[in-house]
Amino acid sequence: MSYRLPTTVVPSRYDIRLEPDLPTGTFAGEATVTVTVREPVDEILLNAAELAIRSVAIEGPGGRTLEGAATLEPDTERARLRFPERLDPGESRLRLAFTGILNDQLHGFYRSTWKDAAGQVHTLAATQFEAVDARRAFPCWDEPACKAVFAVTLVVPDGYAAVSNTGIVAEGPAGPGRRTVSFADTIRMSTYLVAFLVGELEATEPVMVGKTPLRIWSVPGKRRLARFAQEAGAFCLRFFEDYYGIPYPGDKLDLLGIPDFASGAMENLGAITFRETALLVDEGAASHNELERVADVVAHEVAHMWFGDLATMAWWNGIWLNEAFATFMEMVAVDAWKPAWQRWVSFGVSRAAALGVDGLRASRPIEFPVEAPRDCEAMFDLLTYEKGASVLRMLEQYLGPETFRDGIRLYLRRHAYGNAETTDLWRALGQAARQPIPPMTEIMDGWVFRPGYPVVTVAEAAGGLRLSQRRFTYLEAEAASEERWQVPVTLRASVGGRAVERRLLLEAGEADVPLAGPVDHVVVNAGGHGFYRVRYAAPLRARLLDALSALAPIERFDLVSDLVALCQAGMLPAPEYLELTARFREETDRNVWTVLVAYFGYVNRVIDEALRPGLAALVRDRLRPAVARLGWEPRAGESELERQLRGDLLRALGTLGDDPEIQGEARRRYARYREDERTLDPNVLPAVVAVVAAGGGEAEYAEFLERFQRARTPQEEQRYLYAPAGFRQPALLQRTLDRTVSGDIRSQDAPFVVRALLAGVYGRGLAWAFVKGHWQTMARLYPPSAYRRMYEGVTALVSQAWEREVRAFFPEHGIELGGKTLEQYLEQLRVAVRFQEREAAALAAHLSSPSPPSGERTG
Ligand SMILES: [Zn+2]
User: Fold this and answer.
1) Is 495 exposed, middle or buried (0-12, 13-18, 19+ CB in 10 A)?
2) Is the pTM of this model over 0.85?
3) Which of 301, 330, 555, 792 is labelled catalytic?
4) How many whole angstroms from 671 Cα to the centroid of ligand 1?
5) What is the pLDDT confidence band of residue 491, given thresholds at 50, 70 and 90?
6) 26 burial class (0-12, 13-18, 19+ CB within 10 angstroms)?
7) Mean pLDDT of 731-748
8) From the CA of 242, how far away is ligand 1's center (Å)?
9) How far is ligand 1, taken at its centre, from the CA of residue 301, in Å?
């Protein structure tokens, strides 16, 4: 079956008029599409889904008008327009009248609802077209290469705001209680970037960034939460105009927070839509993580205005480049805006997540052929965003940031208002580099068009070091592999007390690095930009652990992350790893702690219930010194990152570490917070809530539920949305599960609450039973992308019995998750169960030893 539309008739301009009727959930529309008929045809094929086409006519080059008839083809989401005679070649105007539905599925033209302070429900209409849902709002050539100009008119109730991609050029009455709002012509762009919003929305005053007015929109009452995003947006807009060397391609920029939104945000040109938590925030009451999230998403979407919107992939196989590049630029911009946040260090956490998925046999190349457009929806994952961005970062560091930027500028100038392929970017970067380096494609193909990545083994050899590479996988880790990558390696060594740095491109299976003397210690992947893992021979590893203070935070992060992966792959015994975590008691970087704590959590899911106290004791031993250093109260002069670290560690110590002192103190501090909210630092509050939940009962549960219902910010709502998943009493966990299908929780959030319950050791059994009983309801209620991601939770069902059930469940019910998603979840589960089979006895011995791990204190 061919999904591509024929190119015999192509559009250049759409004049669209839409009249949504919010109470009935329908809309009526008219479109006049200026098309070029390239050869005589008597039918036109274009995309349409869930639309009823009422009338069809075409006015040809000579002024001759033909009436046509439309037939819908639901399987391919197309409409076939037939005409009684052949159409003459040349420019023609196709006129269509149609009706459609404002659905509740958060795609196409859809309805979103919100409650005001009095509890009254209000409705707004919004759009989400990427990848292939513009066809649900108007008949169109819904392919990214079919770029056209859009002139939109919306007919809306009085008192409702109307927003689209460009500024308003005309407004007027349209009968009783309604008015017409017409928008300026857009640039030539793809259908998936068109947006319409109609509702009782309110906007901030615009800030001018050069010639561009920038506003933040929200439902009424939330305008006070817009300042931070507006500041971030203004910085990014200025930053990208400079970085790309091209003015912003729109006439205004609106950022809109939508109460129901399936993904994080969507880069509609000039009218970017966001999930509220990614846009609206109270700067004074938010944690560092919450602010970083807003800055990241705003930067990401604004970066797309050029990369994606101005120059666009030719087909959906190129979506990775859009997303990888926007993710990369998000780091560059946020790092420039808030250098103290050290965004490239925290990016290590994202890179490690991508290495996790890409270490599976069921990984996939970043770019792969896409036939049916819906297949590209499985591309919106860690490999596209995080591996893609990691690979671009590695290339940027290899070429040098300025050369890289020059290549991007060249690429954008060349493909502005048009479309491009991945190879076009490599070509532009190669031209910008103007130096005798191997052609870009040779270096990049292995990272982009093949799955996986290498583990670089480093050992001492006569006269220096020997590096070797092989593909890293968790299963069959020691199996022979002939695969090779062109690996840009930076290494830093201390040789006889002198620091030396070496850069090389490791192309073959092995390479020797001569060094003038004995190696004290060496860091491979110095600077941490490489997308590969490092396995040090035991003596080198021991010496590196003795020299931790000589490593940058990102290098310590990578060291721990790689050791964890080797452990999961069976190349390092788990007790040995747990022992060496004692070397990190003095650690000060929050990202290093993130990976340390995450792996304690992994072990917790693997071990027998009886061993949990032993693991908790080990966690206390590792974390207490750092918590003692940081205390509960923020200190003058400390950084935002230290404040966030305090929160992270208190939470881990009070939950995973089951520390009674921390639990008692959290309860006391929460009680004081209820009297006076100023008594808790915003970075500590989420930790206190989590710790109180872990030990909490009916009363706490009821209180958190109430706080969820009357939350004042999206972040507060989020906190008390997930807090119930952290309780331990089965009856309370069951109540939370019931709420995921009762309509109490928005469908954009409910699947993630289920995932959180599946991932917790106290809730996973109940949650799994619940999913088995309610998957059909969930499939109907939840947005498809979020429904798929919910099942990631099954990777925490670590036992042979559960694994058998999980493996049977999906084929039994014919549940498909698209792409390789399900295979990846099943393999992650296999890796964990195999780890359990392999390490259970050794962990039991290690964690149940009568003497607590060194350093444990009592009381
Ligand atoms: Zn994006």
Assistant:
1) middle
2) yes
3) 301
4) 41
5) very high
6) middle
7) 95
8) 20
9) 6
